[in-house]
Specification:
The chain has 208 residues and is an alpha+beta fold. The chain contains 2 helices and 14 strands. It has one domain. Strands 1, 2, 3, 4, 5, 10, 11 and 12 form an 8-stranded antiparallel sheet that branches. β6 and β7 form a beta hairpin. α1 runs antiparallel to α2. The longest helix has 17 residues. It is globular, with a radius of gyration of 17 Å.
């Protein structure tokens, strides 16, 4: 089936870290196709590839060189009664953005944290970006070069990605419960945390 106007996509990005750890970041987009361009799945996949590559291309210079953003899994999802359900699996896309910093990586769980806001104050998106280099932080604070890279990442995250003609993928987050359940919200602004965050599961032998 094709992705239609206002359909929601879930994009799961996999990032390899040392010691066979795979970290993941999940993003959401909805298709804005008011001009009825009716893009093909192949065009959707290319647009996702372009958007994700642009995002991680802003931080690759502050990621250790034994890390790599490898691919993205794309699903079309829809709300069913009380949960989001996968309706279609599109083809995975190869991203292939390697970290380039030669310094050692920070501990697996250490992560840069960016929060994205929506029109609903209680509904936000948050990303824990892994793989940053040791010299990028001091006393738990990111250095200026890392903050600059994160700010550029945040701009790319908020940027609508053209698919074809007037059809665009709009960065979004999905509501899971309460008054936001089943609603897809466009991302409007971001906040970059200057302090290192942490993901407990990102360590050898535990998971993503």
């Amino acid at each position: 089936m094709a992705v239609l106007n206002n359909d929601t996509l879930r994009v799961t990005v996999s990032i390899t870290l040392p010691d066979n750890v795979v970290a993941q970041n999940v993003y959401y987009f909805y298709l804005q196709d008011t001009g009825a361009e009716n893009p093909s799945n192949a065009q959707i996949e290319t647009a996702v590839d372009t958007a994700i590559t642009a995002m991680y291309g802003e931080v690759d210079q502050v990621m250790a060189n034994d890390t790599q953003v490898v691919d993205a899994q794309i699903e079309r999802i829809a709300w069913e009664t009380d949960h989001w359900e996968t309706k279609e699996n599109l083809n995975d896309v190869s991203i292939g953005v390697p970290g380039t910093e030669t310094d050692d990586m920070l501990p697996h769980g250490a992560a840069a944290v960016i929060t994205a806001n929506t029109s609903r104050p209680q509904t936000r998106a948050r990303k824990f970006l892994p793989g940053f280099y040791e010299g990028g932080a001091g006393d738990s604070d990111w250095v200026t070069s890392v903050l600059t890279a994160l700010a550029a990442f945040a701009v790319e995250w908020l940027t609508a990605q053209q698919v074809v003609g007037t059809a665009y993928l709009i960065p979004a987050v999905i509501g899971q419960m309460g008054g936001s359940a089943g609603i897809t919200y466009a991302l409007l602004s971001t906040v970059v945390n200057s302090i290192i965050g942490y993901q407990r599961r990102r360590k050898p032998g535990v998971g993503s």
